[in-house]
Design brief:
The protein is α+β, with helices and mostly antiparallel strands. Helices cover about 30% and strands about 30% of the residues. The chain has two helices and eleven strands, in the order βββββαββββββα. The strands form three sheets. Strands 4-3-2-1-5 form a five-stranded antiparallel sheet, with no helix packed on it. Strand 3 and strand 4 form a beta hairpin. The chain is elongated, with a radius of gyration of 34 Å. About 5% of the residues have low confidence.
Length: about 190
């Protein structure tokens, strides 16, 4: 179920980024109201809409550390860090250039083994894994529908094959009885 402010892609000869304004204009229709990033608001069919961020509810409802961006900058070792990509600076002594690290789950930031003053600055959320991306991993509902459709096709082909086997057996039985009758008549003619 789409909710207000959900980021979506809208298909209109091209995938356009938009946000849901009204999830359902009418309880009996599948039309929703979206606002494109250009600022234009338009009604669209729900079938022409895809989530822009797969599993958006998990992302939106994911527990976050309650500090703002300025408080995520220049964190010392021992601080609690939320998931994300961080830029690490090594000081006292400076033994490495700033580099990026990925923190997958909330954790306590570690101390550096070579310097006494390491700092972590939050850069952004980690990128999405390819297996979680809707463009590369079909949603289970789509896969289940595809499997049901394939099962129906296999069932139809099985029924057609059984019918063809029955017809083939009837043809062979008719042909065998005709062959026997012909052979019997041929034997009578050659004996006379």
């Amino acid at each position: 179920m789409l909710k207000k402010h959900t980021p979506v892609w809208v298909w209109d000869s091209y995938w356009w980024p938009a946000y849901v304004v009204v999830p359902k204009l009418n309880p009996t229709s599948d039309v929703i109201l979206v606002q494109f990033e250009s600022g234009v608001t338009a009604p669209v069919k729900a079938s022409d809409v895809r989530l822009r961020v797969p599993q958006v509810e998990k992302t939106v409802l994911m527990p976050q550390i309650s500090y703002s961006l300025p408080e995520r900058l220049n964190l010392p070792a021992g601080s609690i860090a939320s998931p994300g990509i961080y830029i690490v600076s090594h000081l006292d002594p400076t033994h490495a250039t700033p580099h990026e690290i990925v923190i997958g789950t909330e954790m306590t930031l570690p101390r550096c083994q070579l310097c006494s003053n390491v700092r972590f600055s939050w850069k952004c959320l980690p990128p999405q894994k390819i297996e979680e991306n809707a463009f590369f991993n079909p949603e289970p509902i789509d896969l289940a529908a595809h499997l049901r459709s394939a099962a129906v096709d296999v069932d139809k082909m099985t029924q057609a094959s059984r019918q063809l086997i029955r017809r083939s057996k009837q043809f062979l039985a008719t042909w065998d009885s005709a062959r026997r009758a012909f052979a019997s008549n041929l034997a009578l003619i050659s004996n006379s």
